[in-house]
Amino acid sequence: xxxxxxxxxxxxxxxxxxxxxxxxxxxxxxxxxxxxxxxxxxxxxxxxxxxxxxxxxxxxxxxxxxxxxxxxxxxxxxxxxxxxxxxxxxxxxxxxxxxxxxxxxxxxxxxxxxxxxxxxxxxxxxxxxxxxxxxxxxxxxxxxxxxxxxxxxxxxxxxxxxxxxxxxxxxxxxxxxxxxxxxxxxxxxxxxxxxxxxxxxxxxxxxxxxxxxxxxxxxxxxxxxxxxxxxxxxxxxxxxxxxxxxxxxxxxxxxxxxxxxxxxxxxxxxxxxxxxxxxxxxxxxxxxxxxxxxxxxxxxxxxxxxxxxxxxxxxxxxxxxxxxxxxxxxxxxxxxxxxxxxxxxxxxxxxxxxxxxxxxxxxxxxxxxxxxxxxxxxxxxxxxxxxxxxxxxxxxxxxxxxxxxxxxxxxxxxxxxxxxxxxxxxxxxxxxxxxxxxxxxxxxxxxxxxxxxxxxxxxxxxxxxxxxxxxxxxxxxxxxxxxxxxxxxxxxxxxxxxxxxxxxxxxxxxxxxxxxxxxxxxxxxxxxxxxxxxxxxxxxxxxxxxxxxxxxxxxxxxxxxxxxxxxxxxxxxxxxxxxxxxxxxxxxxxxxxxxxxxxxxxxxxxxxxxxxxxxxxxxxxxxxxxxxxxxxxx
Length: 634
Prior knowledge:
Layout: E1 2-4, E2 7-11, H1 19-32, H2 44-50, H3 52-57, H4 65-82, E3 84-88, E4 92-97, H5 114-127, E5 132-137, E6 143-150, H6 152-159, H7 171-179, E7 186-190, E8 206-207, E9 220-229, E10 237-246, E11 251-260, E12 267-277, E13 282-290, E14 296-303, E15 320-324, E16 330-335, E17 351-356, H8 358-367, H9 370-373, E18 379-382, E19 394-397, E20 406-408, E21 417-420, E22 443-445, E23 450-455, E24 459-466, E25 469-474, H10 487-500, E26 505-506, E27 510-511, E28 515-517, E29 524-528, E30 542-544, E31 549-554, E32 561-566, H11 570-573, H12 601-633
């Protein structure tokens, strides 16, 4: 590489550069030897007159004009073949800001939030480095703020545009994506998380500046999952709320429940309870016989009596949760290595799926975390056999291991359906002879499960009820959900969701970041009772909701429609302990090079073409034209 006027000159194939001087020497030798060896008969007098001059000219090489055109043409072709690469020598630096909810927590000292400290650290690091900057935020997805090639002061302006989001950090995926960008020389990640040990492949490129004095851990209390059961005979219902402590001491809490009557348009206090919660504890509270006149509820937490050992509830944003009886989507748990979107489950508008991986499910099951199961209508286990200890209605798809309730026989591609149970709701609206799974896992029941689909190789569907819990096991794959593209498997999956999810327990809210949809466009949309207005896109009757609360949709011809939105993520609320970041190896992405960073092959090829055309014009076309004109004159 060569530094030239603030730019770096390099080549993609530098091994071809030694050919350039060799080609120049070869061209000079060809011109030097041009015309020798040809006999010409001339008069003796003419020979004597010109003898001295040619003899002297043979001693040194005086190239003609055409030599320089050929030299330029040859140089252009060789430089293009070597991949001449000219780029700005300044470092290209990415600044990635973690703007997930945990960054809103107050730091241990000084009272400032982690996010404030992150912005200060990012600005200070940018000011100390020469180079150009790109600014990114990690939540809810990796997003670039403004253009690339920013100065340090412009990067500071871009950082001011970032806000904390009600979303998980998405930091692992963001870091891997930036590491895979070959155009970046350095990546500065500003977060409350960092790797326990930096992997060697990331060490030269990745850095994590400290936030403030580095003392970030703090104590926090949160309202976890909430659920509503409106099966009461009087039309009222029962509200359940989980309280979560991420503190090292016992904490005194006051929990308030408010109700909202749509027409009244204000929150009314229904009940207040004071209680204590153990260090790192969880507690579920139930509020019964709630009046049917309320259309929405708010659960709010406050520290009843701050103690010398518990001074700061560091994250206020997770101290409140909302429920709306008009929010009809139900909540299920997906246990899989693959996320809900990749499995097509985001297309099911009536269901909201929380996703955890099998190892995480096993760990939480061993700890018997109450929020793991009590808040879900059922669990969908994809290519995973759960332990017997959980207390959820279950759908198990394509299990890979045996259970206490069934055995998995050897996989086969030759299973043919021989009989089935038409009367069972799992097999409604189906033409069973069409079922021919390519990769079947025949099953054998060892307990209460009975076979609903039999084949020549064994059962393909087992189902039953045990201790008031429904269980269905499918010996073939139903995912990804593709709707009409795969009608048979789609109907089977919808039947399973309906059967396992039949319950009076409703989610009562949507997650922040999800789409708020309406059958008809409302006249006005705002957070109630007195929050900001929301603007629907002109060509849509839906929008993405980013903040928790109850949103009221007002219509001229019907009552106000109230929709609740919440965000709770245990990892984001846990501000007491550090959550180490795992940095995975990147896959290099095909990044389009900028004007300064791409090889100059096109320009060099065009220059070579110009030199070639110029040579043809000056030394072939014009001489021939002159010769023709002279012949006609003679």
